[in-house]
Amino acid sequence: MTAAAFSVETIRFARRTREQRRHRVIAAIAALLFALFILTLCLGQSFTSPGDVLRVLLGEEVPGASFTVGQLRLPRAVLSVLAGLCFGMGGAAFQIMLRNPLASPDIIGISLGASAAAVFAIVVLSLNGPIVSIFAVIAGLLVALLIYGLAFRNGVAGTRFILVGIGVAAMLQSMIAYTLSQAPAWTMQEAIRWLTGSVNGAQLEQSAPLLFALLVFGGLLLICSRDLEALRLGDDTAAALGTNVGRTRMLVILAAVGTIAVATAVTGPIAFVAFLSGPIAARLVGHNGSLLVPAALVGALLVLAGDYCGQFVLPGRYPVGVVTGALGAPYLIYLIVRANRSGSSL
Amino acid sequence: MTGHSLTIQALAAGYSDRLVLKGLDLQVPPGKITAIVGANACGKSTLLRTMSRLLAPRAGHVLLDGKSIHAIPPRQLARTLGLLPQSPIAPEGITVADLVSRGRHPHQGLLSRWTKLDDEAVTAALEATKTFELADRPVDELSGGQRQRVWIAMALAQQTDLLLLDEPTTFLDISHQVEVLDLLTDLNYARGTTIVMVLHDLNLAARYADHLVAMADGKLHAFGTPEEVLTEEHVRHVFGLDSRIIADPTSGRPIMLPIGRHRTKPHQPGASALPLHCAPTRIQTPVKEDQS
């Protein structure tokens, strides 16, 4: 073997090793998610044997298990996983695109836009049902466009986008507070659901929009993932490498807002899942290759584990958003402190 | 390969309310090294950005082989024309090999897999820039000089016949500046890559470039060999600075020695250059040290 061929083999081998490690970690996260999914089906306030769970899943009528597993635990677990996948992927896409972990949709007001529209629709327009969700999705997109428009000056710089987003988020928050203060008592319950994410009372039919969002918007994100990776090198470098920066940005914003807004419409804004998934995934798989898939899996893991803890592990019962919120807030503070020291990014 | 021609015709470009390039024509010499020099804010970087399609021109054309670069699909253009911007961003924790691999981006489609060809291009780029040994190290742990070599390696992995670089030597100490310019010259000799770079240091530009482009106020002020461009008159026009030009004893290329208000002998027109080993005698005692 010549020296040159040897060098190429060395590089090839190192690359393969990196890829294999990455795939192993992703497989491990997926396995963990699967295990947790099974656990939540088997173990609630009572224990159902895995065999019974399997029979329920296959459609058999199992006395004592069909209702608990089929009607309570399964919809809840499925909804948690799907919403988590949406939040994780959409959040990471924003963070990668703007090269900043603070650029998550739940920090820059996109999730809040969906919530505000839903609260408005429920309280002021007295609407309910799927129409509220459609309101939320459209509002999420409008808020994203608003931030994009306000932050646009010779292209969109990451920091400006984030600062404008935080401002918009504050504005939306006060709009929600105002709307709620005007709300008649009987709409409060429904409106509040839009402020804390929860999978309480989950029904299997609710997973349809989430599946749709994952297929359409998630698929679009995966198609963009290579160009999205190029954006991490800076807009100029990405363009020099043949990426259409403006088009990639628009597609990623559209698709990421789509996943986030649909998930928010189903479960409410489950606090900080979009924000936490990307950085946790980056810690686990390292920085080689796209983070979208591992971040989606981590998001699912967070929602599923958070909801389980909120129900059975912690004293008392909490919606999942309270648990993930308690996890996310310290991390947000840590990021801000660290960013102030070193000015570094995701 | 030196087949590609890059031509700039009556180019005007700028940012929202400010016109920076005000009508500029240039034929980039193929297979040669061209350095763009000029004062701050004269439009050097803007020219490079417009040439590489990062910025849309307000008027005029940038033609690659006679075709407007805006009519060429971005990926296809990126296989012929590479650019190393002034401040590329290395994602946190990325390794050298991974960063260099990203230069293969324009060669890969949506579903195409990584091939042996890609590995070979990455290896060749690492070896050419002497960064092969660093392949597994995270980029953020490297020194400034090493990091710049890694970025150049990424641009090399792109395997373009034309390579534009925006101030590739900024923030490097002098030995690393020379190292980077030597590396680019190697590349030009070995592959015939056409190189166009913005350089701050006039003397290094004159030393390493085959042609200089001197810009002033968004226009082409002078174009030609270093001997033709680096003259006292041009330096005065472009930088508003008095200077002496002497021959570099090492390369024979011109060297510009600036003349400030202090610590200079009165200029004697026609006087021959001082030999370098001769310490100049100070005639005038400066009134004050002005360091600012």
Q: What is the share of helical residues of chain B?
A: 25-40%
- Calculate the terminal CA-CA distance of chain B, rounded to whole Å: 47 Å
Intertermini distance of chain A:
41 Å
| Portion in strands of chain B | 25-35%
Portion of residues within helices of chain A? over 70%
Number of DSSP strand runs of chain A: 0
Classification by helices and strands of chain A: mainly alpha
H/E series of chain A: HHHHHHHHHHHHH
Number of helices of chain B: 9
Number of strand elements of chain B:
12
Mass-distribution shape of chain A: globular
Radius of gyration of chain B: 21 Å
SSE class of chain B? alpha/beta
Mean pLDDT of chain A: 87
**Most extensive interface, chain pair and sizes:** A-B, 34 and 49 residues
Oligomeric nature of the chains: heterodimer
Mean pLDDT over all positions of chain B: 87
Describe the biggest sheet of chain B?
Answer: 6 strands, mixed
Walk me through the structure.
The complex is a heterodimer of chains A (346) and B (292). With 346 residues, chain A is an all-alpha fold. Chain A has helices spanning 3-42, 50-57, 66-97, 110-123, 130-151, 158-181, 185-192, 207-231, 235-240, 245-267, 273-285, 292-313, 320-342. In chain A, α5 packs across α6 (158-181). By secondary structure, chain B is α/β, with parallel strands linked by helices. In chain B, the strands form three sheets. A six-stranded mixed sheet of chain B has the order 6-7-8-3-9-10, sandwiched between helices. In chain B, strands 2-1-4-5 form a four-stranded antiparallel sheet, covered by helices on one side. Chain B is globular, with a radius of gyration of 21 Å. The chains are: A mainly alpha (346), B alpha/beta (292). At the A-B interface, α1, α8 and α9 of A face α2, β6, α3 and α4 of B.
